[in-house]
Amino acid sequence: MASGSPRRREILASVGFPVDVVTSNFIENLDKDSFSHPCEYVKENAKQKAVEVWKRLVESEPTKPDLVIGADTVVTFEETIYEKPIDAKDAFNMLSKLSGQKHTVFTGVALVTPLQPTMPPDGAIPIIPPSSPKESVDFVVTTFHEATDVTMTEMTDEIIQGYIETGEPFDKAGGYGIQGIGGSLIEGIRGDYFNVMGLPLHRLCKELYHMYSD
Global pTM? Predict the structure, then answer.
C-alpha cells in the first residue's frame, strides 16, 4: 500500500487483506486547475504515489511486487477541492463552508501490477513491448475512482471550534473524519462509507476480482 494512512490500512485489514505499508515520496503538488474534473485529479495523484513506490521497491528488492495500491481522497464543494487543512484557521474555513451542506468525496485508486509478457503461439521467447522514453514497461497501471455524497449538519462556530480542538481534522481531507468524532456531524451519506474514510472497499474488491480472475 503506497500510503501511510492508518485508515486505509485498517480497511484492508478488516477484510483480511495482507498488506505492507510503504509511504510514497511523491510530492503532491499537481495543478488542480489543469484537470477537467476532481476525479481525474485524485486518480493522477493515486497513480503517481503508487508508481513512485513501485519503482523504489523494484530497485531495492530482488523480486517485483505483486501489487501496489495507491489512493488519494479529496472533498469537493461548489467546484472547490478541499484536501487536508494546513492549520486551525484553514480547518475552520473548510468546516464553515461544509456546514449544513451536501458535498462530494472523491477517492482515486491506482493499482500497479507487473507487466505480463506476451507469449507467441509457438512458445518462443516472450515478446516484451519496446520501452517508452518516459516510462518503464515493467508495470501496468489501472485507475478508477469512486464518489460519495455526504450531508453535514449545520454547525455553530462553537461546535466547529470544539471539533478542531480535538485535533481530528488535521490529517483528513475536508477537515473531518467520518469514522471518528466527525461522524457525529454527518446527517447522512449516499454511496460507499469506506470511500469517505479514504478507500472504496467494494469497488477495490471488484476491480481486483476481475483483474486476477481474468
Answer: 0.86
In this structure, the number of other CB atoms found within 10 A of the CB of residue 161 comes to 14
Which CATH code is given to the segment(s) 6-213? 3.90.950.10
Mean pLDDT of the 63-91 span = 94
Annotated catalytic residue within 20, 72, 90, 149? 72
- Report the alpha-carbon distance of residue 70 to residue 55 in Å, rounded: 13
Confidence at residue 117, expressed as pLDDT on a 0 to 100 scale? 58
pLDDT grade for 38, boundaries at 50, 70 and 90: very high
Confirm whether 192 is a catalytic residue: no
Contacts of 38 (CB under 8 A, 6+ apart): 74, 76, 81, 104, 106
> Can you tell me the distance from the alpha carbon of 6 to that of 198, in angstroms, rounded to the nearest whole number?
10
The domains of the chain are located at 6-213
Q: What length does the chain have?
A: 214
Q: What proportion of the chain, given as a percentage, has pLDDT over 90?
A: 74
Kindly state the cell numbers that stand for 207: 476491480
